[in-house]
Amino acid sequence: MMNRILLPFLAYVAFVAESTIMQVMLPEYNGEGWLMVPRFTLVIILFISMYLKPQVGIAYALVFGLLTDLLYTDIIGVYMFSMALTAYLTSVFSRLVFGNVFVAFFLSLIGVTCLETLVFGLNSLVGVADMAWGIYLYDRLLPTLLLNGVFTLAIYYFIDKHLQKIKDRLN
Prior knowledge:
It is built from 7 helices and no strands. It is mostly helical. It has one domain (31-165). The chain starts with a helix and ends with a helix.
């Protein structure tokens, strides 16, 4: 029973932690113009996509993407679509190259980059975002990758162990 609810619980805790940590990481608090956006839920979803069936990761991405859209954005579907696409692409690439902590680390950074770029591109397309691409890359994407890279390394061994147990039980 505990194993069945631990994974959704971890994703939920990561989702709540994102908004809590976001209040601390706002540009007016860090002294720079940087905006570090925690994507902890996405990182957990990417690990789920790497270890388990793609459908499981996509389902988590759809649920938490919709929650993100409903709670934090004015346009419904941007995060839901972007997170699901990112989870799917990560699962496809992980089947080709997955094997160790370094590959998982780089796939999660690529996934965060994919999500951030998709969301920024879609928001720019509809006129919600008005930041120049160069400023976006330096002031938002690079600090976001740094924060989420540290998070990925911090949780890797715990989530690897847990997802391996689930994968073995399913096979």
